[in-house]
User: Fold this.
Amino acid sequence: MEAFAALRTDFVLDGELCLCDDRGRPNFRAFHAEMRPRRPDTSRMCYFSFDLLWERDVDLRRLPLSERQRDLARLCNKGRKDVPCLRLVESFLQGPPLLEWCEHYELEGIVSKRLSSPYSSGTSRHWLKVKTDQWRDSNKFRYKMFEGRKKPAELTERDRALVRKREELDRIRERLRDADLSHGTIRELRKDVAILEAEIAELERLS
Assistant:
């Protein structure tokens, strides 16, 4: 994002671009709906950063996480005024209370990492993702949308297409609830809804 140029230094972050609701919670569906247009409204988005990999041509990945977090906090604090979209992901030593807090605020869960660990991309023994029971329950529909409750690996190509299109339809309908949308955007989104509804109806007739 161009806003990061205000930091006036070279760096590589690890994090996630999110669109938050009016309570400050990341909304994954709303984010994907916003990214569908060619020119998404990035003013509503923020970047949650949880690791610093490079800074000023220095590779930090071999340093322990505790040191990388220290440097990341310095960088984020430096840009707090000029780059308001940059958010620092805070760290907490006690996992169970944090998971309870996520459950209370209807968040997905937490990621636990070893403070002594170097950086590694992909799956690693140095970190663990734990999702709340509430999130698991609310997302069961992803795997139980069809008669017989097939597992994702057992779905046919038609079934997988239905899953994708139904989820996309849900995202667009959720975005249409935004009172700040322009009339032009609303018209385009309603066209997308009509197209998806027709495609879903056609796939359902193939059963």
User: Anything to note?
Assistant: Helices lie at 28-35, 65-78, 95-104, 133-138, 157-175, 183-205. The chain is about 40% helix and 15% strand.
